[in-house]
Specification:
321 residues, alpha/beta, TIM Barrel, 8-stranded mixed sheet, 11% strand, globular
Length: 321
């Protein structure tokens, strides 16, 4: 199947070239290790993965935070970032220099050995929790994420609620993430959020702040799943046919830079998993004195970028328009 080149599509729509504006978010993929192996995972994380950021690289991340005053947020992802040996070091260091911190949490990790104090640590440091919960029903969650995941996820959300997360007037942010089970675009985020809010409160007494509806990217494990089902080409066609140029100005890569566990720099986490380096001249965190130096650089693109621009758009913060 031959897809229209993404840059050619941008040019046709008068949106080329795609370039970074000011970097305000530093997203760090600190480890590929995870206690789960979800079907949609674009990182192909699992308990068998061992890649992880070493202490020297973690130190450099914090050094760049201090040298980059425009950076507002350290966004920690993985794998399960809580399983990273230096997770608390990164959180504490970022908070000490006045940055907001996001923990992209799969919820069940809070019950792993050695994680007994993690929820309280997050609350004590005012870390925003962005938690994966692809549905409010057990059947759908476990179809995507594995057996026994749903009950643990619900208990973890209740635990976070007890700590103050997700409460209407609380500064402890608890946001949830939805992504489709199969080869389809997410439904309308605002409507889905209301359904989540009603069902979780009525069934489990759970409260949260926002719901993010995120499009599954056709790379790595999800791409393999699509191929096995014979749905890969149809899904790519769906993304291309729903390209929405209004999303381009809001793409997360325009205000974000992604760092791999080895210190390599990327325009986003998806490019990182495809090993598609920055389109600019810098390649690692050791080559820049400040992340401000990346402002204005061109952004590397590929066919997967249709996933972020289809329909209402998709980013780590949900829909774009």
């Amino acid at each position: 199947m031959t897809l229209p080149n993404f840059d050619h599509t941008l040019r046709r729509e008068g949106r080329f070239p795609l370039a970074r504006e000011a970097v305000t978010t530093l997203q760090v993929n600190s480890t590929r290790r995870c206690n789960l192996a979800c079907h949609h995972c674009h990182v192909e994380s699992s308990p068998k993965r061992s890649e992880a950021m070493d202490h020297r690289t973690s130190e450099r991340v914090l050094e760049l935070l201090r040298r980059s005053p425009a950076i507002e947020t350290l966004d920690l992802t993985g794998g399960a970032p809580e399983l990273h040996e230096h997770f608390r070091y990164l959180v504490s260091g970022a908070r000490e220099c006045g940055r907001a911190v996001i923990d992209r949490c799969n919820l069940t990790v809070l019950y792993e050995p050695g994680q007994e104090g993690t929820a309280q640590f997050l609350a004590d440091h005012g870390v925003a929790v962005v938690a994966s919960l692809p549905c409010y029903t057990k059947e759908n969650v476990e179809a995507q994420r594995g057996r026994n995941v749903f009950d643990k996820s619900i208990e973890a959300l209740r635990w976070l609620n007890r700590l103050g997360y997700g409460q209407p007037e609380s500064s402890l942010v608890l946001d949830l993430v939805y992504n489709p089970l199969g080869a389809s675009l997410p439904p309308q985020q605002a409507e889905l959020e209301q359904t989540y809010r009603r069902e979780l409160l009525e069934l489990f007494g759970i409260e949260f702040h926002r719901l993010y509806a995120i499009t599954n990217m056709p790379i790595k494990r999800f791409a393999d799943l699509l191929v096995r089902r014979g749905e890969y080409e149809a899904y790519l066609s769906l993304l291309v046919n729903h390209f929405n140029s209004a999303n381009v100005s809001q793409l997360m890569c325009r205000a974000l830079v992604s760092v791999g566990y080895d210190g390599s720099l990327y325009d986003c986490d998806f490019n990182q998993m495809l090993e598609l380096p920055l389109a600019g001249s810098h390649r690692t965190i050791w080559e820049v004195e400040s992340l401000d130096k990346l402002d204005g650089d061109p952004i590397a693109t590929g066919a997967h970028c249709y996933g972020c621009t289809a329909g209402s758009g998709s980013s780590c913060g949900g829909v774009l328009v």
